[in-house]
Amino acid sequence: MSLDELCATVGAADVVIDPARMAAYQFDWARVPGAGMPCAVVRPRTAAQVQAAVRWAASHGIPVVPRGAGTGLAGGASAIEGGLTISLEKMTAIKIDPATRTAVVEPGALNAAVKRAAAAEGLWYPPDPSSFEICSIGGNIATNAGGLCCVKYGVTTDYVLGLDVVLADGRLITLGGKRIKDVAGLSLMKLFVGSEGTLGIVTRVILRLLPEPPPASTLVAVFPTARAAAEAVVEMGRTIRASLVEFMDGRAINIVEDYTAMGLDRSAGGLLVIQSDAPGAACAQEMQRIEAVCLAVGCSEVYRTDDPQEGEAFLSARRAFFPASERLGSLLIEDVGVPVPTLPDLLDGISEIAARHDTDIPVVAHAGDGNTHPNLIFDGADPAARERAEAAFEEIMQLAIDLGGTITGEHGVGRAKIGALGAQLGPDVMEVTRAIKAALDPQGILNPGSGI
Amino acid sequence: MSLDELCATVGAADVVIDPARMAAYQFDWARVPGAGMPCAVVRPRTAAQVQAAVRWAASHGIPVVPRGAGTGLAGGASAIEGGLTISLEKMTAIKIDPATRTAVVEPGALNAAVKRAAAAEGLWYPPDPSSFEICSIGGNIATNAGGLCCVKYGVTTDYVLGLDVVLADGRLITLGGKRIKDVAGLSLMKLFVGSEGTLGIVTRVILRLLPEPPPASTLVAVFPTARAAAEAVVEMGRTIRASLVEFMDGRAINIVEDYTAMGLDRSAGGLLVIQSDAPGAACAQEMQRIEAVCLAVGCSEVYRTDDPQEGEAFLSARRAFFPASERLGSLLIEDVGVPVPTLPDLLDGISEIAARHDTDIPVVAHAGDGNTHPNLIFDGADPAARERAEAAFEEIMQLAIDLGGTITGEHGVGRAKIGALGAQLGPDVMEVTRAIKAALDPQGILNPGSGI
């Protein structure tokens, strides 16, 4: 192995080998323990440089970790000791094509930048992870990211029309294009979406855009218990297509109120923020039906607004949860999802696990999808507290599996959950997974130890 | 190889070996020449019988052709001489779960039966191939079928939440479930959708359902030229989310008028049938915008109705095209798709190809998606006419590829287009395809010679 060779093939200006600078590339937001120091960080500006870097790594059998904006919550971009990290941060071009309602995007472009570029043409890129201001499209593709609006508008994979991918041997393939429907050959594009950097490195994406939706109305409903709020979600899911259905439990409400003092009801057991973007008068009708469901399951207070700014203010309580909880200690961020009707049982179960393991576990959720984020908060300096939190983390995943759910709804498996993947998928699906991995990356150099 | 062994393991009552009865399983609607006589047709009632049949075939190295309702338009279900055809026609159970808004469906259930079962619970299964009354969900999964409403509501893969699949070695795996979001592991489920029976045989599907949409309004617009109609489609695609955008060219209009005498304008060069299902007053607004676009590009006549029955009557002209053209001679049904802005050029190019090869090629299209069905009509008894039609068929596929499109938008590759797949995908994507095929079906027994 020769770093000189790497610098020569990629261009020395885009290779970082200074350990002090490389330290910034060791972790993502999950801060999964055990990240190593890479041998180099390549920051390509072109797909050809990605190919050159991968070819160099392949020729030396060096593991490759692709990295977007580093906001991942499962450790999928954690550096490997002696491995090559390829950071796509410099590949940020965005080109909107209004005629085809598509965006051609490089992987380092931020989700918010794509949204802004689309909006400038009266168009809309729906997927909206909570981190949309700071996460990259490449990371969104790698994890098949979700978000708040996906209860009505779907997740990242639903908007991917085309991908350029650098394979493990350095070849570049182009999948899909600006055509909307295409069933020629295997759905390889869909296979690469959500593959967490284990099958290839995406260097260009064609995203489908929609016309901008009508302005949304917002409803906030306060419930005496978390279970009652969840039951409202289940009930409205049968017949209503809300464009956003977010949940906070009582503990999450209090953490946000401690942080923001915005006047939330500290006695509430659960809170829902719900939006409808049905056009015109249909919006008010949908809001009335949503309100009726909330009242029927016993909500103690409900408030509605058609003012988008006021609506965003309510949503800001939900968005404040992550910074509000981050300052309380170390975090393990869960991402379990269940069939919507089992949401009440999942919340009850998490509450029981929190009590039994004496761990603070506030819960927020993209409730309309059954996708929850129990955040385990603990004193990172206390090994016993960490052990309890880790045990609770594992139990919550098993609970979700037992309820017919998943260990991860949108964050990905990464390194944080790789040990639990087999429990969800079972040995036969794991074997199929390994067979496909071996077919596309026989050396196993792409993000080993993560994702699958 | 022993058919006695097959009968013993599957159950003789569900095995057909009489050649006279097996003849009904030799072709699908594409009637691609060269179908053989299978050694047996298994008609399983359970997934366990599918497993047993596949294990028997695997142990003898016998090719397996899965078959749904036999309405495929690419020869994907054509029987192989001496192969085993597995017809899923008896596995037709449908169970609607309103709480999760899902349907658990066996592959032989007809698309229309799923729609009806969902409607009985106030729910809706959107994908609607033109053949929805007679095509099976298993076939829809195999081809990732589209239809008329997918311009707004997406294609089959967008509604698949779970699959049970029998692999090439007879193992049964379960992918996904009733959870809406799930990113754990590779997107294997999406890989199996559209794989045309080459990677496994689906024995159970979990489909996502939506609440029933509002009633649609319908607009019919008549244009002097096909190109003008296509330009209207391009223009409205930038800003309007119609729920249906169907096209017929002048030749297709005349063929339907010959058949139905419904009073269509025989002098028209193109006709659009467009629907909006926006709720309440928004629908009329959307219709007005659509009408304005049609008038702006020079449509000669436009008619609107809010009466769903009258709307369906207009759509019946479009639906009558297949039976109307079928009686005129032998058919080669194209399914090419292009980026929507290139639709006018595609239509012009098809017209030029038709003239040059002296072949009758009326065109209908799911125009809002850029997915067209040029139907090549020729005298099957005239070898020269067949040769000209086949040459035109190939040229139309190449034209679509040259315009950034696909050789198949919704019918699949099957045996009809397998020779053209490489021209679209290129050698590297073909190699990745073969690597995945080899990983999942090392013996190559699943639908060889078709799909990929």
UniProtKB/TrEMBL annotation, chains A, B:
Annotated keywords: FAD, Flavoprotein, Oxidoreductase
UniProt entry tagged with the keyword Flavoprotein: yes
Requisite cofactors: FAD
Ranges where the FAD-binding PCMH-type domain occurs: 34-212
Signal peptide residue numbers: none
Matching InterPro entries: FAD-bd_oxidored_4_C (IPR004113), FAD-bd_PCMH (IPR016166), FAD-bd_PCMH-like_sf (IPR036318), FAD-bd_PCMH_sub2 (IPR016169), FAD-linked_Oxase-like_C (IPR016164), FAD-linked_OxidoTrans_Type4 (IPR051914), Oxid_FAD_bind_N (IPR006094), Vanillyl_alc_oxidase_C-sub2 (IPR016171)
Stated name of the protein: FAD-linked oxidase C-terminal domain-containing protein
Taxonomic placement: Bacteria, Bacillati, Actinomycetota, Actinomycetes, Micrococcales
Organism: Nostocoides vanveenii
